[in-house]
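User: Here's a structure from my thesis project, written as structure tokens. My advisor, Dr. K., wants to see whether a designed sequence matches the one we expressed. Can you design one independently, without my sequence as a hint?
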């Protein structure tokens, strides 16, 4: 029988977890790494000394949570509730039948044929951004993270809204998203302050920022609906594709929610991933040369296409290795809906279960010398020998990242464009640390010298 405790997994004493709560707010990954070293690949602790949590880096357990026994889990309420308040209920935070209908409909937008169709426009937009980057770089070293935020915002915005949305509008929406996300994080880590945020007017201030962003998107939704035609972008798909079961179309409100959720999900994830790729290339410049040789051989001076980008095997391995060392989602969280037995571990109802991606990607049971940057880990034979759910930068099971193919395509395009057109190197020797918020960001700027080749 379950008596409310997690059994068969080592436990961090409550007092220790309570003492660590400040560190947990500042850098939860460093605390998790300490616990992992002391207790092994799966352990339990009380969040802030209070909420029961099971953290795991074991593929078998992760596979059970995300796939085999997924019916026993939901996304965590704290994140879902806070997100609904600011973003409404869309694919990212829905469950059950409602999730399945949205997922089926949105998946059409990520089909290979659609991605191939948007690629030429993406390459054109990127050329524009490269011109802006060179103008900035002429003044001195640039923060590559800041540049990547701009690049991915534009590319994701372009895939969603075609040419119609201006950079100024995208930047306003992008700023609104980051401000609101920072506010959501504050509410998650300091839930006792939520009543104060309401009384002091802070919640309403962020609602106003959200309404201003919504108004921009809604204006485009309505204009497109009236025009009746448009480019092969996502907005068109959302407006024109009916649900598989009822044949109804999405309401304008639902189109707004889904497009904003895709912007949130697709922008900061990719910009962080790319920042870490460039950082790692800066620290291992021999790979810049190898990628350049590969791009010269496969693409030469010609145009990038969906096919030739996916022939850049080494570039892809570098991306995979960067996502291993610095997974933008450093953890996934779920809540047990009822008492459940998970590969021999007894998990009571209400427990937060955390597939800890950062730690999984460093689990020495299947990663040799895990801190070493080594893209050859992703050569086919080595990758095949590893357990599934041992490498999960995009999650796993039915809720695996829906934008995973788009993210990889955009990263290949950006890296290949960069190495073909520019010389770049880190401007400072000091290592850049991690800042795990909702996503794994660099803790400070990544300054690079960039010049035209
Ligand atoms: C390197 C870039 C990216 C990374 C590392 C990443 C990672 C992830 C992860 C780990 C999940 C699963 C979360 C969970 O199970 O709780 C997820 C879900 C999701 N991602 Fe991504 N993502 C990236 C890019 C994108 C892009 C470009 C888009 C869209 C434009 C996108 C849209 C989504 C959506 C909508 C979901 C929710 C899917 C569902 O619940 O069915 N992501 N992503």
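Assistant: Designed independently from the structure alone:
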């Amino acid at each position: 029988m379950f008596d409310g405790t997690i059994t068969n997994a080592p436990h961090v004493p409550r007092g220790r977890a309570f003492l660590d709560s400040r560190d947990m707010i500042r850098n939860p990954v460093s605390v998790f790494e300490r616990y992992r070293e002391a207790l092994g690949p799966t352990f339990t602790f009380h969040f802030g000394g209070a909420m029961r949590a099971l953290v795991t880096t074991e593929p078998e357990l992760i596979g059970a949570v995300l796939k085999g026994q997924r019916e026993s889990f939901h996304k965590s309420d704290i994140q879902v509730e806070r997100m609904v308040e600011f973003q409404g209920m869309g694919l990212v935070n829905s469950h059950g039948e409602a999730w399945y209908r949205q997922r089926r409909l949105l998946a059409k937008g990520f089909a290979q044929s659609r991605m191939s169709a948007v690629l030429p426009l993406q390459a054109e937009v990127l050329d524009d951004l490269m011109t802006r980057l060179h103008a900035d770089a002429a003044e001195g070293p640039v923060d590559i993270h800041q540049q990547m935020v701009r690049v991915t915002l534009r590319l994701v915005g372009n895939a969603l809204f075609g040419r119609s949305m201006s950079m100024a509008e995208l930047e306003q929406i992008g700023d609104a998203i980051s401000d609101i996300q920072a506010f959501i994080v504050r509410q998650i880590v300091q839930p006792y302050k939520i009543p104060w945020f309401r009384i002091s007017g802070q919640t309403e201030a962020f609602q106003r920022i959200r309404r201003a962003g919504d108004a921009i998107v809604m204006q485009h939704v309505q204009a497109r609906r009236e025009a009746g035609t448009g480019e092969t972008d996502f907005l068109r798909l959302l407006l024109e594709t009916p649900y598989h079961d009822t044949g109804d179309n999405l309401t304008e409100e639902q189109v707004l929610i889904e497009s904003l959720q895709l912007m949130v999900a697709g922008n900061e994830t990719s910009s962080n991933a790319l920042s870490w790729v460039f950082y790692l290339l800066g620290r291992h410049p021999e790979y810049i040369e190898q990628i350049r040789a590969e791009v010269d051989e496969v693409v030469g001076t010609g145009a990038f296409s969906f096919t030739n980008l996916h022939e850049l095997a080494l570039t892809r391995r570098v991306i995979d290795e960067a996502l291993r060392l610095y997974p933008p989602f450093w953890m996934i969280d779920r809540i047990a809906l009822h008492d459940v037995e998970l590969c021999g571990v007894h998990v009571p109802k209400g427990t937060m279960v955390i597939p800890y991606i950062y730690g999984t990607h460093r689990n020495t049971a299947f990663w040799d010398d895990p801190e070493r940057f080594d893209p050859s880990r992703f050569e086919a034979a080595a990758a095949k020998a590893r357990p599934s759910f041992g490498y999960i930068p995009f999650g796993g099971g039915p809720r695996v990242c829906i934008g995973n193919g788009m993210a990889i395509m955009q990263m290949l395009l950006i890296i290949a464009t960069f190495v073909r057109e520019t010389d770049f190197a880190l401007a400072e020797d000091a290592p850049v640390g991690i800042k795990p918020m909702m996503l794994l960001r660099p803790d400070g700027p990544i300054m690079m010298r960039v010049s035209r080749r």
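When you compare it with your expressed construct, this may help: The chain has a mean pLDDT of 90.
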